[in-house]
């Protein structure tokens, strides 16, 4: 028994020893993993690193300002509001920072004034009535404000303001201070909030600014680019055409462009957030104040619709490889039955050589099946692209873009879109507030010709769609 | 000139008079509009009204508690934290409230302790070194914390905690108080925060609770239901079959069920938010603590994939009506060319009566085009439904649901899914923590038969898929 105990102790200590021994290794692995993730997050968008440094700088600035020169009754009660403001208000984009600053400022003022009024009213009712009246108003305003946050419009733009309104109103109305004392406090608090907010806004706008509007524009443009990449790559993949050097079509080893469109499917929430923030932003780059950001959302909806169709196309082509065998057999059986019917139909009217027809029918049935489905989905895609072009034209009209052409010729059955891009081009290189124009080029070129394995495709030549 | 001025004044006063006269009418219209919107927001989800009342109640409670019995040095500095906590922490669902409370509590403690440490360290370095060390730490921690908020995992679950961490650390480290004073303050603050948080959590859980987990489950189930409604309705619309009373198929006047699936396309963000909040929730209803909520997200992805395919199907069917005429002509021309080729092929081998074949060829070409495309998309849909059924089976396995059957017979070419539902059924009616089971019924029945205008469809009988 003693030996057992000794052995157990020994085993126990060996376990501890092993654990301690492997600990540095484990820590090293974990640290490497975190470093790898950190590098990825920073690499995905280097502006994140700059933003973090900006927040650190703003907070240090405002903290030390109040630490070195404490105002009135010491840092604790007042400088706190400046720190609060910086931490809560400083967001990634200028629009988001402005949204929160404005909401915080106006809500504080409004709720403060209302709070003073309610407190004055309550104080008229004596010691017994006061808490009842205060409680009543806090309840009513908190409940209605909370409910108002469920309105989509308020949720999108004024959510933070409503929160600060409830907070400030509750604090002021039940603070127990007299009105003159409150006004003095309010003055000090508002000035510290304003200082904090101003520091955030200034750093946000003048130090490597991140504009939500510009991001929205780029997001929509890059989504369009992804669809174009797919359609370009799809041509090479599906029709197996390579080496047309004039059109820049070369075989690509990297197939990732065929999956790029998938990210387009999930950008709705991101687009809406950016559009809401962009609404607050002053003019910047090629965009004026009150640029028609909402129109980007409409374009985004149409782009996603097109991406769904591309997804259907992609799924169809993959399903040709992956369809469960039982389905394939069923389809083939049905085809075979159809073939027999047609045959029998002909047999009644002709006495030709049946064996000669058979390969032709086989070809006709299986090859038209694939081509017609693909053509049908491509037709839907073309329709979507027409709609996208219309909505971009509408945008250029609303935003007073110059130099927008709209030519869309649909005389030929289109198969492939070769390139799509939307870019704002500032006038003459200078950023001097001049007008700007948008160019979207959608080049379409047929890769579907009898030589490329599709004997039923019409002979279409290359065509350009400039919109 | 005098007359002009008088006239202008008169016109001006008339304008003001008109404005004042129409003002009550305008106010009335606006008020009615707001009342209408309010009614809609409340009707869409009556739990919103209850939530607003709950917040009002919690805030009034905590406010008056500190107003009537001010602790230590008066309400202003301490009760404030309880009000803060209630306003910021009380969210719509139990999970969201727990998430914020926990984040706030732990972040405050951690940052407070770290702040005291840093301040002690800084005080060792004398008056000149102190602000430098403090500033350095505030900068480093604010920047790294802000950067950490870009990590998706942290963003989803601990975003608020990181915010509170920066806030508290900055406040404590630069407060200028000595450590013993800080510990006293921290004790008071933490207790007020705990009180505020506890009130929120208790009211949130025990007064008409809104469970994010239950909502997620219902959302996924209702999405599945919407797909089923479409497929059921689509049968009636596309194959024009009515009046089969045995199967419950009756002509529906309301076509809204054909559009219901569209809302499914945009529930991704909502599902992710709910899953994140559900992670914090204790066991409730039929769900245990640590229910595999992540699996719902996987099911959600597959449901959306299926909805995209339904969208493609819907778009294809609509495009049959709406395709621009020029495309139709092109397609018809291509078809005609193909027809001629086939004809010529037969002419070479036979000398039958051409006029007799023509109608048959027309029929074959235009009718197989539609049917094959629809069949191909339906095949993809069936494949998606198989995937959904697999992932639901995986969920039932992970969640230890009882009584789950999986039967999926795909012997026959499926055309229509008749009904789909996922519902958790608690064991024996009592909510006593017993196991629960999920039943998903997907009944499929063919409406595609030779009598219904599709001569190439195989004869399929009704079949059930229970998974």
UniProtKB/TrEMBL annotation, chains A, B:
Membrane association type: Multi-pass membrane protein
GO CC field: membrane
Family membership noted in the UniProt record: Belongs to the aromatic acid exporter (TC 2.A.85) family.
Keywords from the named record: Ion channel, Ion transport, Membrane, Transmembrane, Transmembrane helix, Transport
Record-level GO BP terms: malate transport; monoatomic ion transmembrane transport
Pfam families: ALMT
Protein's recorded name: Aluminum activated malate transporter family protein
Spans annotated as Disordered: 446-467
Cross-referenced InterPro entries: ALMT
Composition bias, Polar residues: 449-467
Localization (cell): Membrane
Source species, domain of life: Eukaryota
Record organism: Actinidia rufa
TM ranges: 49-68, 80-99, 132-151, 158-178, 190-212
